[in-house]
Amino acid sequence: MDSPKNKAVAYWTCIAYSSILMMSTNVASAVYPVYKSMSILNQFQITLVFAAYIFGLLPSLMISSWMRSGKGLRQTLLIALLAALLGVVIMGIGASFSFLIAGRLLQGISVGLSAGNLGAALVEYEPDGNHHRAALATGLSMTLGGGSAPMLGACFAQYTSHQLIAPYAFIFVLLLLLVPFVLMLPFSKEKQLKITFPKIPESVRPQFRSSAFAAFLTWTIPAMFLSVIPVVIANYLPSGNLLFPAAAAGLVLIVSGLSQAAMLRVSPKVNISIGSASLIVAAGLLIFAEHIGSPTLVMASAFVGGFGHGTTFLGATRSLNAVISGISQRPEVLLSYNFAIYLGVGLPVLCVGVLSSILTTSTAVSAFGGFVMLLSALLFLGNNRRLKPESATVF
């Protein structure tokens, strides 16, 4: 990483990698209504498939720093890319519950190996060393990449004759295009770390707890819109309409990404206050929309929820980056932060799936909305408590 040009190439490669990887994990949201209508998956199985990747992700996340220290960023990302490619192939060729679970587990391994390392690399390779821009790049790559996937996947499924294969084939090509750019990353090998549970330095623990809580909460919203909501909306619409459910799934992340760009100059604390208040409104809209069966209100909830997600996540990430930018344990802290994010993605969705199988989908969605409203209110109140000037914590 000798020249500014090489540093810039590495920086943009990591952004592209993160975006396309998020696309690969979210493209299935476009065809969940098809799986449901063809009786390939029921509602509970859809939530299991969506959440399955955290069971591959969390263990691989724990060894991701160890992998990078021993093999270097380039080798680690290549291994993760291979797992992602295998995952979309398996999901594309096998339209069954077992194949989809296997594919999602591989996608989880891919994200687990790369997510924390990409976050650390973006801070390291940011051309001007600006950790606030690195936080924005992290958020935008995840949200715009992940949000575009359902919409693009729905277009391929709606307008091609191979609706259960074409979306995955498209993502497979994009993943392949990453290979030469990853091979251009500088080879760096550090002293092999031991595989240990990440330790958060005492000095940053208060801010870490606050940011991790906020990240967990905010990522429950897009997880719900990427798993349960497309099928819920499809029930309100004429059979075969895939674009509207996919738009709802993607809108929450697209709006999130745009909100992060628009709110970058606002202080992290204000971002979290505005974002948590927006999440309360979004959850209320979702509950009301489900009870009256209104796809329009679901879209409104997606829009408000996307704004709330983007502003809250940006504030939380910027606050954390500000206190870890100069410490040697930064990769460990970011690993733990990603752990909180993906628990937020997987666990609440699994709970909704269990509730929907015991009670009804409407009751489960309403319970989820109440859960989000409660935690968002706690975040809002904690963030707006009078703090000491030297404190950077949210709570």
Automatic annotation (TrEMBL):
The chain positions of domain Major facilitator superfamily (MFS) profile read: 1-395
The domain of life for this entry's organism is Bacteria
The cross-references to InterPro entries, in alphabetical order and at most eight, read: MFS, MFS_dom, MFS_trans_sf, MFS_Transporters
Q: Where in this chain does the entry annotate a coiled-coil region?
A: none
Keyword line: Cell membrane, Membrane, Transmembrane, Transmembrane helix, Transport
Gene3D superfamilies assigned: MFS general substrate transporter like domains
The name this protein carries in UniProt is MFS transporter
| Species whose genome carries this gene | Azorhizophilus paspali
